[in-house]
Amino acid sequence: MHSIYKPYNFSISEDFSEVVLTAVVEIPEGKYVFCGEADLKFELKPFAVELRASLPVNYPSEAPPEIKHLSGPFLSPSVIEIVKAELREKWTEQNPVLFDWCSYLQNDLQTLLFGEADLEIELDELQLYKNRVWKALNFLL
Description:
By secondary structure, this protein is of the alpha+beta class. The chain has 3 helices and 7 strands, in the order ββββββααβα. Residues 136-141 have low confidence and may be disordered.
């Protein structure tokens, strides 16, 4: 995978027991976030999500990676559980599924998060998203 992805997209521990995938989620042009209470509207830009997983000794022949952590802007706890379930479904025996996971995060996650509509958030969510987006932007700089 190191030959496919840049170092900031993929890293693996020295003992091959843990992997970190950092994917930039692509956003189609013209997608917006609205917060009516704050009279705020901003255009969505690509943002980073991070996935940490442990690799069992019998991966990929008999066991999938175990997702330990998933974070990023706009990932609520319920969305995180949906994403984890979708990623787990991609594993089959003998399939080194990490490539599929990275591809899903980069290309398909935005459809789950935003669908065809823009995103509307509540005022109390605004600060949470602001902090997460700022962290993601710092990663991209």
